[in-house]
Amino acid sequence: MASLNITTAFSTSFHFLHSLRQCRNLQTALSPIVSSSYLPTSYITQKQIEIPTSPEKQSPPVQEGLGAFQKLPMVMPSIDLYASALRKSKRVQPTKGIANIAKRERNRGAKQLDAFMKELALPLKGYMESFPRKKLLHPYERSLIDLTLGDGKYEEVLGKVDVLRKKVQSVGKEHASLCAKALSKKEAEERLSEGVEKLELVFQQQGGAVDDLLTIAKVLRAMPVVDLEMPTLCLVGAPNVGKSSLVRILSTGKPEICNYPFTTRGILMGHIVLNYQRFQVTDTPGLLRRCDEDRNNLEKLTLAVLTHLPTAVLYVHDLTGECGTSPSDQFQIYKEMKERFKDYLWIDAVSKCDLLGGSPVMYAKEDRSSDDAEIIKYRERGPDESIHVSVKTEQGLNELKNKVKEVLSSEMEKIQSGEKTDQSVATC
Predict the structure, then answer these.
(1) Keyword GTP-binding: yes or no (predicted)?
(2) Class of domain 68-222
(3) Regarding predicted confidence, which is higher, 366 or 102?
């Protein structure tokens, strides 16, 4: 009879779980749950929860290297977290040897509420400790977080998860204590039911933070992995100049190729294998002629890549007029980027050369009154020493590949010689 009453106390959660299951079905249809192991509750022991590390014993925070996103834990959807915690808490039995019915039921109720609270709070605690603090991330990955998720979104969601954890602990402890003080079997059952309902309400109101964290983990884990020790070729240029087509030819990357601005909506990473050595190739969103304050997040993503990653820049120019950005504007963007990142190795490629006619392309809105010899020359042939290529006719592609090979191989030799120098210094 006692077991039946305790089961009845938990039945108040049936409606909430049913609605959550419906939400889960919808969520799964829109964004499939990643197939992997969730962070186990045993990730943090009870001792770690109850006895925090003293400030003297805490080690100073260490800055993360690149690859922190691939180490993120698998976040359990809120419906699974709640259902799992409720299911496990119902299995908890009262301490053996209690003969008095009232004492036995209040012991059972207090232990089940305490277990319910911990099964909810411990995974949340694990997430808080496993997701890196943004200020300790590599600058490149900090930029990716802000530009991909929005400024402050990462910290906001983690903050909400921590608020949920603290609320669950507070409510669980409060109602477990009330249940332990019950004077009768009926009162113990009522306190148990009230505690479950209160924790249910907390998750109804604030559990969405867990699903937000799940989404963030999926987005960040899908970011391309970058190796700072490997030479990187970064393709840059205005939108729709043909960068993605060249990435497909030069590397293993397979970007989407369409004729509209900002086809590349993120960073695509591919690899080149030359003489049994691997090199990285990145395709970036196009840049428009405007000041940094007016750039959208896609353009800022390109600037972040240029700031933190490249060994060499392959700048792609389109003088045919097809890309939507005039040669004059492309020239100004090019001059600005080359001045800003002048310490990098540069390769210039003029794409779609099979479409170039005898006379340079002019846009009707362009003002030619202020043209100088440099811009006139650029409209006709592009920058000095640029390689003219055509994906359609394959003109210039072998020359471009050889130039890329020469630049990246040279940079790899510098990296390797630098490592040998560092090792010899360390030995001394």
Answers:
(1) yes
(2) mainly alpha
(3) 102
